[in-house]
């Protein structure tokens, strides 16, 4: 009885509700999904048969799956790199001494707006603007030799690029805020010493700013990689993975397998592969955090 009420057990008693909820809503579902990936006709059959790695071999032979992998790779790579570059640019502008405090405050409000909108708002907003009769085509029509009836979301040659642009637009504020916080934590003495030694702004950026921000940049890049890898809402509401699977990422591919083709076994297989990739990145993220704290 003392074991349950003693001071030594107090931390465990406080953690117990959270641990129980995590087991119920995270550990058990993950275990079930992994189990389904080794079965045939999971969920839809009362007695699904064990098929071993057959689902994985079938998945890796699927042309649509590899098309989704390619789209996901392009989508994630372009988004993460662009988030980093744009976030760094805006953060340095907001940290600059050349603008007044009022100007910086107004700029922060404007720059952070895309991050405030929910996925549904972002999707509806851009879908309206990108219609053939929308404002984007109208503005472009004001310039000579520009076609004003472009089908931005229906043309498979440009649809993925448009989706990448929208994701970049609504995701860069996270980088901007994180990098801005890191910039404000760098001592001005470092830049003054560099200036005395004859270093210009470019050398100070690569020799002081980047090394000081390296832990933050690596951490937010890993987080953004995991988040972007699982992006679903915006893509689904804008294109549904079309046209002709040109914007179909792995998350869309898994959703269609499960809820359109009702093939939960293959959906679980694809989800398990995606989970494995996320776990690998998460392990590197945790190691990076330990290095920063250590």
Strand content: under 5%
In whole angstroms, the N-to-C terminal distance is: 38 Å
Number of strands: 2
Write down the secondary-structure element order. Answer: HHEEHHHHHHHHHHH
What is the residue-mean pLDDT, rounded to a whole number? 87
The biggest sheet, with number of strands, parallel, antiparallel or mixed sense and barrel status, is: 2 strands, antiparallel
Number of helices: 13
Radius of gyration based on Cα positions: 24 Å
Low-confidence stretches: none
Label the structural class.
mainly alpha
Shape: globular
Q: Fraction of residues in helices?
A: over 70%
Strand order of the largest sheet: 1-2
Write the layout of secondary structure elements.
Layout lengths: L1 H4 L4 H27 L2 E2 L8 E2 L3 H7 L2 H32 L6 H16 L2 H11 L5 H7 L17 H26 L3 H9 L4 H29 L3 H6 L11 H10 L4 H30 L1
Antiparallel strand pairs: 1-2
Description:
It is a single chain. Helix content is 73%, strand content 1%. By secondary structure, it is mainly α. The protein has a two-stranded antiparallel ribbon. α4 packs antiparallel against α10, α5 packs across α8 and α10 runs antiparallel to α13. The longest helix has 32 residues. The chain contains 13 helices and two strands; from the N terminus they run ααββααααααααααα.
């Amino acid at each position: 009885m003392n074991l349950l009420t003693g001071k030594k057990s107090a931390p465990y008693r406080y953690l117990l509700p959270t641990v129980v909820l995590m087991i119920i809503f995270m550990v058990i579902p993950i275990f079930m999904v992994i189990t389904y990936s080794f079965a045939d006709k999971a969920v839809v059959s009362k007695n699904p048969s064990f098929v071993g790695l057959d689902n994985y071999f079938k998945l890796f032979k699927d042309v649509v799956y590899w098309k989704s992998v390619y789209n996901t790779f392009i989508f994630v790579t372009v988004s993460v790199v662009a988030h980093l570059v744009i976030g760094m640019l805006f953060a340095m502008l907001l940290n600059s001494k050349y603008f007044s405090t009022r100007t910086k405050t107004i700029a922060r409000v404007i720059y952070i707006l895309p991050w405030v909108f929910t996925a549904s708002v972002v999707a509806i907003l851009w879908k309206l603007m990108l219609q053939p009769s929308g404002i984007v085509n109208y503005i472009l029509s004001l310039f000579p030799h520009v076609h004003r009836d472009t089908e931005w979301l229906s043309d498979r040659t440009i649809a993925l690029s448009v989706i990448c642009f929208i994701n970049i637009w609504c995701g860069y504020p996270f980088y901007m805020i994180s990098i801005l916080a890191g910039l404000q934590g760098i001592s001005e003495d470092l830049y003054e010493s560099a200036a005395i030694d004859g270093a210009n702004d470019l050398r100070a950026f690569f020799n002081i700013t980047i090394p000081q921000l390296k832990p933050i940049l690596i951490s937010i890049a890993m987080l953004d990689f995991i988040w972007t890898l699982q992006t679903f809402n915006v893509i689904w509401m804008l294109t549904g993975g079309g046209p002709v699977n040109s914007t179909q990422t792995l998350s869309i591919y898994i959703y269609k397998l499960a809820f359109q083709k009702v093939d939960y076994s293959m959906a679980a297989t694809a989800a398990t592969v995606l989970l494995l990739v996320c776990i690998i990145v998460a392990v590197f993220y945790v190691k990076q955090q330990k290095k920063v704290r250590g």
